Amino acid sequence: MVKDKVILGIDPGTTVLGYGIIHVQNNKLSMLSFGIVQLSKLTNQPDKLKRILDRLNGLIAEYKPDEMAIEAPFFGKNVQSMLKLGRAQGVAIASSLNHNIPFEEYSPRRIKQSITGSGNASKEQVAAMLQKLLSFEEMPKFLDATDGLAVAVCHHFSKGVGEHNKGKGKGWSSFINANPDRIKK
């Protein structure tokens, strides 16, 4: 088990993308950074995607995360908005893969549940709980930043088992593969 790692959390968006970076050392969490990528002034989608890619590549170069976690798609009624959000998520995932950083996805409900105990918590409730947990003083102007932080913390609390790994790591075959020395022959 890795006792020291850096996790990059992403709350994807096409107007504002939030990110949070935490350091886990011997199961103790500390915040390294959190913020946003402001995209509202860019009018065309390819420029927004390039800005996301450039900023994430810069964060990866600076903080060298061991893992990345991203908020999974949610199902909305506006197909165009879903398509744009999916593209932003895809760029974030591609950035992670391009740097050989494993990633995992978590549903918005699961993220809120892991931070506050309620899957219906507001952005403000999530931010307040993170402020207590990670001891940062000033609340950011855009709560997308604390949302990105929440994704990283959820990833840690979930031991890296998100939407992609559901069902993996459960059952006897996984136990046997993880513990070959405990099998009597």
Poorly predicted parts: 170-175
Q: Enter the CATH topology name.
A: Nucleotidyltransferase, domain 5
Separation of the first and last Cα atoms: 26 Å
Structural class: alpha/beta
Largest sheet: 5 strands, mixed
What is the CATH architecture assignment? Answer: 2-Layer Sandwich
Globular, elongated, flat, extended or rod-shaped: what is the shape? Answer: globular
- Mean pLDDT across all amino acids: 87
**Adjacency order of strands in the biggest sheet:** 3-2-1-4-5
Question: Into how many domains do the coordinates divide?
Answer: 1
CATH homologous superfamily assignment: Ribonuclease H-like superfamily/Ribonuclease H
The percent range for strand residues is: 15-25%
Helix content: 40-55%
- Look at the structure and give the CATH class: Alpha Beta
H/E element sequence:
EEEHEHEHHHH
Discrete helix count: 6
Rg of Cα set: 17 Å
Instruction: List how many beta strands DSSP finds.
Output: 5
Structure description:
By secondary structure, this protein is α/β, with parallel strands linked by helices. The protein has a single domain, classed as Nucleotidyltransferase, domain 5. The protein is built from six helices and five strands. It has helices at 45-63, 79-98, 108-116, 123-134, 144-157, 172-178; strands at residues 4-11, 16-25, 28-38, 67-71, 103-106. Strands 3-2-1-4-5 form a five-stranded mixed β-sheet. A hairpin with a 4-residue loop joins strand 1 (4-11) and strand 2. Helix 1 (45-63) runs parallel beside helix 2 and helix 4 packs across helix 5. The radius of gyration is 17 Å and the shape is globular. The relative contact order is 0.19. The model is unreliable at 170-175 (pLDDT under 50).
